[in-house]
Specification:
By secondary structure, the protein is of the alpha/beta class. It has eleven helices and twelve strands.
């Protein structure tokens, strides 16, 4: 039976689930971690690793990998799962693309992930800034492959196409959860629009790898996850990530269940059967976890499918 803990200050009967052994991680401190942190501070760059309290920060930063969060550190949305601050957005820093390119060069990255807060206040949702960042990296680190993890650009005509036309190597947009839970978990977003975004990016630039991720443990049912997989394959998405939701603070949506490693493997098998080029499904999987290695695996999987199309 799963252990229950009382939440202090949340009233009688309010409980939260204790983390099982397979989800507990300790932050690895190393010189590389501190060097990465210092570089980000010097260049005034934000990372989603820190802002979202990612459990894999120590491992990734020790390997000189970080997911940079552009367009400030304050989001215009208030999603129930996310630890990024909500409020009045920061002013867009026109120097950020060059600073980002400098960081990529200094860290010696072969693959970089660029994400952002939602910027509903901007006419294009920040799409032009994404394009500027891609172009700056290509100027200063031409050998680095680029993955973008964009917001939904809802009600921002032309934004999806502008980012796709900048030709990142991977276009990622996370669905986060099943449609039934959107109103509670992802208010302000629209499930059908997010699926359409991925389809439009691939239709615009078919050579792009497209990618999406979800969290489990929020109250979704297995059948709903399988239906979501079908929707993503209908949008020709190549890569699916599935990880355990972890509650950042008592103010955020609670964990309804810790999904077992065996269940994660069953989801991975279901995704492979549906024809995804790649799937990562483990408790600690996050959208950008092992992104560089996964990009190489994506390339290999596409080559293998081209050589043996009947296996796709």
């Amino acid at each position: 039976m799963t252990e229950l803990l009382q939440i202090e200050g949340r009233g009688p009967g309010r409980t939260r689930l204790a983390k099982p052994p397979w989800i507990r991680v300790r932050l690895k401190r190393s010189q590389a971690v501190e060097e990465t942190r210092a570089l980000m501070r010097r260049l005034s760059l934000n990372t989603v690793c820190e802002e979202a309290a990612c459990p894999n920060l120590g491992e990734c930063w020790a390997d000189k990998h970080a997911t940079v969060m552009i367009l400030g550190s304050v989001c215009t949305r208030a999603c129930a799962f996310c630890n990024v601050a909500t409020g009045m957005p920061d002013a867009v820093d026109p120097r950020e693309p060059e600073h980002l390119a400098e960081a990529v060069g200094q860290l010696g990255l072969k693959h970089v992930v660029v994400t952002s807060v939602d910027r509903d206040d901007l006419p294009d949702g920040g799409a032009a800034h994404f394009v500027a960042c891609i172009e700056a990296i290509r100027r200063h680190a031409s050998g680095t492959t680029i993955e973008v993890l964009t917001p939904d650009f809802r009600r921002k005509p032309g934004a999806i196409e502008a980012v796709a036309d900048a030709l990142p190597d991977v276009y990622n947009h996370n669905l986060e959860t099943v449609p039934r839970l959107y109103r509670r978990i992802r208010p302000g977003a629209d499930y059908a629009h997010s699926v359409s975004l991925l389809a439009r990016a691939k239709a615009r630039q078919p050579q792009l790898f497209t990618k999406s991720g979800i969290m489990v443990g929020l109250g979704e049912e297995r059948a709903e996850v399988l239906a979501l997989m079908d929707d993503l394959r209908g949008a020709d998405v190549d890569f699916l990530t599935i990880g355990q939701y972890l509650q950042p603070t008592p103010r955020h949506a609670r964990v309804e269940r810790y999904v077992t490693p065996d269940e994660f493997e069953a989801y991975a098998q279901a995704a492979r059967e549906r024809g995804f080029l790649l799937v990562s499904s483990t408790p600690l999987t996050r959208s950008s976890y092992h992104a560089a290695a996964d990009f190489r695996r994506l390339q290999a999987a596409r080559r293998a499918r081209a050589d043996h199309p009947a296996r796709g």
